[in-house]
Design brief:
Layout: H1 3-28, E1 33-41, E2 51-56, E3 61-66, E4 72-78, E5 81-88, E6 95-101, E7 107-108, E8 111-113
Parallel strand pairs: 1-7, 1-8
Antiparallel strand pairs: 1-4, 2-3, 2-5, 5-6
Length: 119
């Protein structure tokens, strides 16, 4: 290759890299949010394998997750809105809470379950 060809090749590669970086920054700007938290019992012990369900009646969407071995749950890239959050675990009373999720405003929502039965 001649020196001029090398400069053109480097310019093309630099332009492609710049375009790639700009595209990834645009994709990072979203109109979503997240909801996460921990499920524990009255003593503060974590509850694993609890089912956490979020429902948005306005959109009809419904998502469920199981808590991890550390009692943690997470819903990523959720559309903003008002959600009913339901937590169910064997041997514990069901707990429900309403939460408003706003764009790009992550919410951490802890749940402390009482011993009881689910109906």
């Amino acid at each position: 290759m001649q020196p001029r060809s090398i400069r053109i090749g480097i310019s093309v590669i630099a332009a492609l890299l710049l375009a790639l970086l700009c595209t990834s920054r645009l994709q990072a700007q979203t109109n979503t949010t997240s909801l996460s938290g921990t499920v524990t019992d009255a003593t503060g012990a974590v509850i694993s394998e609890a089912t956490v369900t979020i429902s948005n009646q306005a959109s009809g969407s419904k998502l469920s997750r199981q808590t991890s071995s550390k009692g943690e749950f997470s819903f990523e890239q959720v559309q903003p809105g008002t959600y009913e959050v339901q937590v169910v675990a064997t041997g514990f009373a069901e707990q429900d809470e309403r939460v408003e999720l706003l764009v790009s405003t992550p919410v951490k929502l802890p749940f402390k379950l009482a011993i009881g039965t689910t109906e």
